[in-house]
C-alpha cells in the first residue's frame, strides 16, 4: 500500500505511507469501560502521591503498575529500553518532576531476561544499515543511519563469565551511582536500585 493508508480503526494516518496491522486488543472499548466506571474522581488533582519516581524498562512484562499493585495517580513511572538512567528523555523528565512536584525517591529497576542485554550499539547500527539497503517494503529511509549515530543506545556492558543476574545487578549499581552523582538530581533525593525477577514476580533490593 503506498497511499491513503489507514490505521487499525480505519482512520487516515497523516504522513505515513505504510499501514499498520490491526491491534488484537480493543483499546477503545476497554477505555470506554474504564471511563464509565471511573466517573467521579474528586481526589485526582489534590491527593498526596508517594513522591517516588520509578525508572524501569519499556518491556511490557515489566510493569510497575502491576507488580507493585499501584493505585492510579500514585507514582511516576519513567520507562525506556533497559530502564537506563543516562537516557536523555529520562533526565529531562526527572528534572521537570523535581521542578513541579516534591520528589523524594527514585527507584531504578532492571529486570530478568531484558532484551537490552542482547544488543550492542554496533548491532543496532548494522541492522538499520542493512534495512536501508533492503528492497522490501519494510525498510528505513536513507537518512536513518545519520539518526542512529546521534542516539545513545545504552546497551549493557558485557563482562566475560558473568551471569545474567550479576550483569543486571552491576547495571543497576552503575545507573544508581550515575543518578546520585548527576547535577540535575537534587542531593536530597534518595536513589535506590532493584532487580525484578519476571519468573517469580519478586522485586529485590540491590546493594548500591
Ligand atoms: Zn527490558
TrEMBL record:
Q: What does the note accompanying the cofactor annotation read? A: Binds 1 zinc ion per subunit.
Segments of this protein annotated with the region Disordered: 1-22
Q: Where is the composition biased (Basic and acidic residues)?
A: 1-10
**Cited SUPFAM superfamilies:** beta-carbonic anhydrase, cab
Catalysed transformations (reactions) = hydrogencarbonate + H(+) = CO2 + H2O
Q: Would the keyword Protein transport be found if you checked this record's keyword annotation?
A: no
Picking any one GO molecular function of the record gives: zinc ion binding
Q: Name one Pfam family in it.
A: Pro_CA
Q: Which Gene3D superfamilies match?
A: Carbonic anhydrase
Q: Which cofactor does it need?
A: Zn(2+)
Q: What does this protein do?
A: Reversible hydration of carbon dioxide.
Q: Which family does this protein fall into?
A: Belongs to the beta-class carbonic anhydrase family.
The protein, known as: Carbonic anhydrase
Q: Which organism is it from?
A: Oidiodendron maius (strain Zn)
